[in-house]
Amino acid sequence: MRVRPRPPQRAWQGAQLRLQDRNAIQRPKIEGHPLSAQTASPGIVLENVSFAVAGNPILSGLTAHLTEQRIGILGRNGSGKTTLLRLLAGLVGPTSGRIRLNGIDPAADRKAALNAIGILFQNPDHQIIFPTVEEELAFGLRQKGHSAPAARALALLALAEHGREHWASASVHSLSQGQRHFLCLLSVLIMSPQTILLDEPFSGLDLPTQTRLTRLLSTLPQRLVTITHDPAMVEGYDRVLWLADGRIHRDGPAAEVAAEFRAEMARLGDADADADHPV
Ligand SMILES: Nc1ncnc2c1ncn2[C@@H]1O[C@H](COP(=O)(O)OP(=O)(O)OP(=O)(O)O)[C@@H](O)[C@H]1O
């Protein structure tokens, strides 16, 4: 659960991400299956990355080269996870240091970043911008150059593959929070990005939906970067960065880091520690 007020620019950041570069997007012809991935990639490079707001450091000196397919960013509330995700997505640039995703500077090369990166925000209402399911799914495809009928056909195909063809003309407001979340995931997958950034992907979802999504996510060929405060979410991953107080506290094999994190959280819980403790 979030314990801090969110900065104002966070609201509608998904819509902004999708709308602000509307005119900058190329219109290449997309071929192949809508849910297929693009080519594998050299990875994510963070070189001494720092980010500050009005002089207050939020992230400090992050350095890592991430080439694994399943990467977890683990940390307590306020540790800087979402800020790191926003930097990786290029929604903001670092105050100092260098970020590259598959060779792209995501804050500088918006056009390339929009094609290469998909983001699933924690709150689907920060992401959905169209009134119906079909329009929501078709939007990105239209931006990528598909004709309206082709985008519609691909949207219907994606829904049918998940047994949701009856959602096509539904108003997004008629869907539950979990269903809207699932729609957002489909909107990301239909674009076939190389890298998918997931912000607390199971937040607000019931257990069957979590199980279904876990299964779906585990089959994806893309690189996934998942941010979470829940070690169970990432312990089967390849690598986990543990963020604490805006720094990388620990970086290593997922099972190891998740176990250490879990033990430390249990220790803090037993000590009835304050939620703003740096670790
Ligand atoms: N634009 C901003 N202006 C001021 N402070 C900010 C801004 N963005 C983030 N912060 C602060 O930076 C810290 C890290 O925030 P961030 O949202 O990245 O944490 P988080 O690990 O994702 O937390 P949570 O798990 O609660 O979502 C928090 O103390 C937050 O209040």
TrEMBL record:
One Gene Ontology molecular-function label: ATP binding
Residue span(s) of domain ABC transporter: 44-270
Alphabetical UniProt keywords: ATP-binding, Nucleotide-binding, Transport
PROSITE patterns listed in its UniProt record: ABC_TRANSPORTER_2
Pfam families in UniProt: ABC_tran
Top-level taxonomic group: Bacteria
Gene3D superfamilies with a match to the protein in the record: P-loop containing nucleotide triphosphate hydrolases
Protein name: ABC transporter ATP-binding protein
Annotated organism of origin: Fertoeibacter niger
Organismal lineage: Bacteria, Pseudomonadati, Pseudomonadota, Alphaproteobacteria, Rhodobacterales
